[in-house]
Amino acid sequence: MTFIHLITKNRSYRRYFQECTISQADLHLMIEAARLSASGRNWQPLKYILCNIPELNRRVFETLAWAGYLPDWDGPKEGERPSAYIIQLLDTGIAATAGWDSGISAQSILLQAVEFGFGGCMIGSFHCLGQT
Ligand SMILES: Cc1cc2nc3c(=O)[nH]c(=O)nc-3n(C[C@H](O)[C@H](O)[C@H](O)COP(=O)(O)O)c2cc1C
After folding, report:
1. Which one, 6, 66, 79, 114, has the greatest CB density within 10 A?
2. Measured in angstroms, how far is the CA atom of residue 14 from the centroid of ligand 1?
3. What is the pTM (predicted TM-score) of this model?
4. Spatial contact of 59 and 128, defined as CB atoms under 8 Å apart
């Protein structure tokens, strides 16, 4: 696949084959793509939680906001929800802000996912469990 083809294929997918398992090994390789990407001052302050367990996926899904331009759509229905998540965290013991690292990392993760034949969506709009 050419690079421009990879970029073109990397859309924000919002309906998934929920029954399709994404292995921990594949998720690790996506994180590897992020780990090898540029980091301001090379501080590498981002950490990741990998989640591909249906019960945990359910809890993650509850926190997400999908497609703000479509207020009447609550996001993918059961059966079409993501089968895995990569949650990006900032280690504030290393840096107070992520700067550009978070976007660079997220793009690397998604490009690796697409190269594997998967698709995903960056979600910047979420709430913590227990919050409204
Ligand atoms: C930083 C960032 C945060 C985003 N947050 C959300 C989000 O919370 N929910 C959502 O459904 N899409 C989110 N998106 C996806 C954008 O809506 C999407 O990239 C945009 O509509 C363009 O569509 P495309 O990626 O298919 O080209 C986010 C994208 C970026 C880059």
Report:
1. 114
2. 10
3. 0.95
4. no
